Write the structure tokens for this entry.
Amino acid sequence: MSLQSKQTFAVLNQMVADGVIENYAVAGAIGAMFYVEPFSTEDLDVFVLMPEDQAVLEIPGLDYLKSRGYTEWRKEGIVIEGWPVQFMPIANPLEREAYLNAQEKDVEGTNVRVVLPEHLVAIMLKVGRLKDLARVEMFLTQKEVDIDALEDILQRHGLMDRWNQFRSGLAND
Amino acid sequence: MTKPNHKSFSRPDGMYKAPKRAVAEKLAVAERLRDLQRALAPVRAANRAKRAAGKVEIRFKTK
């Protein structure tokens, strides 16, 4: 099977190997698809750690990517092997925890660092758009999260209200 | 109304069980969906333009 996304992951891994980024963690819709059934998405979101002393927020490795011919932009992402990749600097303690605890997964021999399902769900609850909440439901109905681990995360990051609100919506279905 | 027991969502067989389908297979589906979405983008844009211009008449049958 020839997967464009596998080539995209290989470029990300090469960026880590070349020291352009410390590491990365795939999140968003593509991250979710490592656990739940596939759905439509147009881009690939990756968390990256930015240096603390960086005054101006800039995409890490932009020059590196440009020098390798990746110059096309689509939907706020730089296109790498067919996928617009959004490099998302870690913006809060929840995302930092998600980044630090991401796990290596194997896609046909290519390693991919992916955010854990419980962190993905916590982030989706925090963001709270309709599409995020629909995806939370996918994780729950497809039994892809450990509820105790999820609630531990939600409690530590002040998201229990969101969770209870979501659950009360489910109870009304 | 009795609330459902959401603990029942917990996986009984350990923390991180193997996905039902191979990730590569799911990513291939995502790529096909993405390509279809791109192919349909002009059609959707044309539909939106028609609706915005009031060129689409919506009439519901009630009988």
